[in-house]
Here is the input.
Amino acid sequence: MKNSDFGTIIQIGNCLISEDVVMEYFSCDYENCKGMCCVKGDSGAPLLEDELEPLEKNYPLYKDLMSMKGLSSVAENGFFSVDVDGDLVTPLCKDSEECAFANFDKDGNCFCSMERRFLQGHGSFRKPISCWLYPIRITKLSNGQDALNVHHWDICRGGFEKGRKEGVRVYEFLRGPLIKLYGEEFYSALSFVAKRLIAES
Here is the structure.
């Protein structure tokens, strides 16, 4: 751990982790947000290069859940786009902020087409890790390290409130994707440091 003008920075392996990751509370409040994170935003969800192949490979399994707008977007633009910052992202529907892979039920609730099929036992790709990890956002630093910070978005305000009510910290809520991306040893180290910081606060 090290202190800076931005609070305590936790270093585990090749990752620099903001103290907000362990101190902030969060628990997705889907009952209120209805999956609007898939519908709002300046660009699509960030993608890793090694996610492009499984995204395309599993397409036949989840494409029937997508909207006509989403299918048209993939047909025209492919399985990914490059945003204004030069980052790989999921494609958006034409003239919209809606992710091409969004799925809507009869009540207008939004889900990820990939994840719906994955949770039904079909396919090998759950969804982009950037979506699964939210509200943690990862910035790749020039020295190759990952910087993990908590992102605050108005549509997810209820998630921070719900997390506080339930006593669930950001790193606890995101145990699954953190282990998926960095491994069990990383998460164990993060949990150890988190308990120490929380006890000292």
Observations:
- The beta strands are 2-4, 7-12, 15-18, 81-82, 88-89, 102-104, 110-112, 136-140, 146-150.
- The chain has two domains: 1-26+135-201, 34-125.
- The mean pLDDT is 92.
